[in-house]
């Protein structure tokens, strides 16, 4: 009787603890998603499942594999007071939940990568980047292979990237 | 009372055939002083009965008994309630789990899908991955 009671209590407690874990990134996104100063990109798990129906022929294998293991993508960016939002975003990350992966500081150009994972598998990769032109926070959720991800940019032609850069900063 | 008579009465007594009056006579006899030695043990027995008659229950005996046998309505009710709660929780547990799973999914999809077209979504994912990759390389190979 008591044993059973303890087990039930334990289960309830575990439930409570897992509920108490707050998603800082979710909060940040939630706070600014309707804010006109920000532009938001979101690709949901549902959409990721639909991606398999797309014609993949033009997509390199490395990229294809990486994408196929992702579950969601969220990007929020702004060019208004980027450093203020960078600071706020950093303050919202609970470093007990995330592990610091890469930090780059080059004058005003800062990039931070933090990851959440267990047993060598990375479930979430969070990138927070800022320079004088803008602030960007990106969250990848899924099964993430960092080596593969790091190789992507060198194996891809940079043209697409340049396009995006231009698009992002067209108001400059 | 003659010794003979006493012996007869005793015989009847052990057969459980004595009347109340006869038992009273016996008790009186053994209370007396001229009891032969061989009946000394009887004397003890009858004096014991006499003594026990004097014992009366304490005043609050009834209350003490009632206290013991009083049905523990409240306590038993609490146990039933606890058991019912556990059963209920166990029953609802899958429901909890379901709603939690839902919540997790909602947390991931805080923002509405930006794209309706998977092709566009893929392009965006691709670009995002490239930006992340490039930034990673900035950290991994800062001199390049």
> How much is the radius of gyration of chain A in Å?
19 Å
What order do the SSEs of chain B take from the amino end to the carboxyl end, as H and E?
Answer: HHHHHH
The total domain count of chain A is 1
Number of helices of chain A: 7
Largest interface: A-B, 61 and 40 residues
Strand content of chain B: under 5%
Biggest sheet descriptor of chain A: 6 strands, antiparallel
Structure summarized in a few sentences:
With 172 residues, chain A is an alpha+beta fold.
Characterise the protein shown here:
The complex is a heterodimer of chains A (172) and B (144). Chain A has 7 helices and 6 strands. Mean pLDDT of chain A is 78; it is low at 17-22, 159-163 and 168-172. Chain A starts with a helix and ends with a helix. Chain A has a 6-stranded antiparallel β-sheet with strand order 1-2-6-5-4-3, sandwiched between helices. Chain A is an alpha+beta fold and 172 residues long. Chain A has one domain. Chain B has 144 residues and is mainly alpha-helical. Chain B has 3 domains: 3-54, no CATH class; 83-112; 113-144. In chain B, 74% of the residues lie in helices and 0% in strands. Chain B has helices at residues 3-14, 20-31, 40-54, 61-69, 73-108, 118-140. Chain B is rod-shaped, with a radius of gyration of 47 Å. The mean pLDDT of chain B is 78. Chains A and B meet through helix 1, helix 2, strand 1, helix 3 and helix 4 of A and helix 5 and helix 6 of B.
Can you lay out the helices and strands and say which pair or pack?
The complex is a heterodimer of chains A (172) and B (144).
Chain A: H1 2-20, H2 24-32, E1 38-43, H3 45-50, H4 61-68, E2 70-78, H5 82-92, E3 99-106, E4 109-118, E5 121-131, E6 134-144, H6 146-155, H7 159-168
Chain B: H1 3-14, H2 20-31, H3 40-54, H4 61-69, H5 73-108, H6 118-140
Helix pairs in contact in B: 1-2, 2-3
């Amino acid at each position: 009787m008591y044993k059973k009671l303890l087990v039930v209590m334990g289960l309830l407690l575990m439930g409570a603890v897992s509920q108490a874990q707050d998603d800082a990134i979710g909060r940040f996104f939630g706070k600014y998603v309707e804010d006109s100063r920000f532009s938001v990109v979101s690709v949901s798990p549902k959409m990721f499942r639909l991606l398999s129906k797309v014609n993949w022929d033009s997509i390199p294998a490395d990229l294809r594999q990486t994408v196929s293991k992702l579950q969601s993508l969220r990007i929020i960016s702004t060019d208004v007071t980027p450093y203020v939002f960078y600071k706020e975003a950093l303050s919202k990350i609970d470093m007990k939940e995330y592990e610091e992966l890469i930090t780059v500081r080059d004058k005003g150009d800062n990039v931070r990568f933090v990851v959440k994972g267990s047993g060598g598998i990375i479930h979430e990769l969070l990138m927070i980047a800022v320079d004088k032109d803008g602030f960007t926070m990106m969250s990848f959720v899924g099964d993430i292979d960092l080596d593969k991800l790091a190789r992507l940019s060198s194996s891809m032609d940079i043209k697409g990237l340049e396009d995006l850069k231009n698009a992002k900063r067209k108001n400059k | 009372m003659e010794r003979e008579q006493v012996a007869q009465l005793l015989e009847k007594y052990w057969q459980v055939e004595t009347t109340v009056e006869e038992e009273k006579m016996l008790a009186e006899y053994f209370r007396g002083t001229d009891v032969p030695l061989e009946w000394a043990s009887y004397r003890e027995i009858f004096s014991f009965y006499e003594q026990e008659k004097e014992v009366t229950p304490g005043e609050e005996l009834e209350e003490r008994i009632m206290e013991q046998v009083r049905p523990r309505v409240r306590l038993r009710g609490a146990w039933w309630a606890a058991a019912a709660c556990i059963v209920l929780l166990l029953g609802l547990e899958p429901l909890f789990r379901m709603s939690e799973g839902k919540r997790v999914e909602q947390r991931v999809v805080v923002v509405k899908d930006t794209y309706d077209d998977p092709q566009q979504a893929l392009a965006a994912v691709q670009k995002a991955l490239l930006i992340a990759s490039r930034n990673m390389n900035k950290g991994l190979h800062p001199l390049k």
